[in-house]
Amino acid sequence: TRALIRKPSVTPKDEGALDVVEENLKKIGFATTRLSFQDPGTDRVDNLYARWGSAEPVFCFAGHTDVVPAGDADEWASPPFDPTTKDGAIYGRGAADMKGSIAAFAAAAERVIAGNPKGSIVLLITGDEEGPAFNGTKKVLGWMSETGEKISHCLVGEPSSSEHLGDMIKVGRRGSTNCWLTVFGAQGHVAYPARA
Fold first, then answer.
1. Burial category of 171 from C-beta neighbours within 10 Å (exposed 0-12, middle 13-18, buried 19 and up)
2. Quick one: pLDDT at residue 94?
3. Residues of the chain whose pLDDT is less than 50?
């Protein structure tokens, strides 16, 4: 977490954040693929696809190393890209969203791998979540489709809580759907369902 926070990876710049993740994952046996995408008129974005194992099911952790700008550093209690510990918590840009999640998942993956689990573990880490999101997850998913990489389950480590850390889990999605529903029958009132 500390090594990641030290990287000022403000979207779309990576500044070595993916190197930190990749080096640590390689040490525990992950095969890694760096994916760089750039649409016309957009910034180039680096992404990381790391996989341990080749069997099904495939459990994927999706995250991002990019962060929003720190703003005026003088308004921070400590420098935004200098991880600081206070009252047992690490402070710095990206500690919660979501460099800390990536580090926690990598540490958890190391423990799981030590138990020789069935299946595979994947980390899909983008550098384009906090910005326009043109050259990150969407492009990596396209690459996965083209190369036959499939996942069975996916956990997005984006921080979500209501009152205190860890008090909820959200089923999330990006995007929307529009549809038309046609119902055949007689219109009625809920007070008289037998007539409708």
1. exposed
2. 94
3. none
Tens of pLDDT, residues 52-89: 999 999 999 999 999 999 999 899 999 999 999 999 99
How, if at all, do strands 45-52 and 120-126 pair? Answer: antiparallel
Q: Check if 97 is active-site.
A: no
Asked if 22 is an active-site residue, the reply is: no
The closest of 48, 67, 93, 79 to 10, measured between CA atoms, is 67
Q: Which of 22, 46, 128, 129 is catalytic?
A: 129
The model's pTM is 0.81
- Given the residues 66, 97, 130, 149, the one annotated as active site: 66
**Residues 6+ positions from 34 with CB-CB distance below 8 Å:** 18, 22, 46, 47, 48
